[in-house]
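Each letter names a residue; structure tokens follow underneath. Both lines appear below:
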Amino acid sequence: MYVLLVYDIGEKRVAKALKICRCYLNWVQNSVFEGEIKEGKLKELLKKLREMIKKKEDSVLVYRFPNDNTFEKEVIGLDKNPMDVFL
């Protein structure tokens, strides 16, 4: 599946997050990664990120594109822009 991963992580942890993500996805620009990844490898990546972030401070967004017509969004840690209200 195709994945877009974006993070906003504290300065002390950002280098470690960059190193982890670069092992699994293509680095696009600061804190943005993309690429094809198998479900097992994605779970492995997300497990490593969950272990190193501070959930009350850091934010990791994962957009999954299982096919051309849909996508799924997963938030790990702090959701800095929750969409509770729809107009």
In short: The beta strands are 2-8, 26-29, 32-36, 59-65, 72-77.
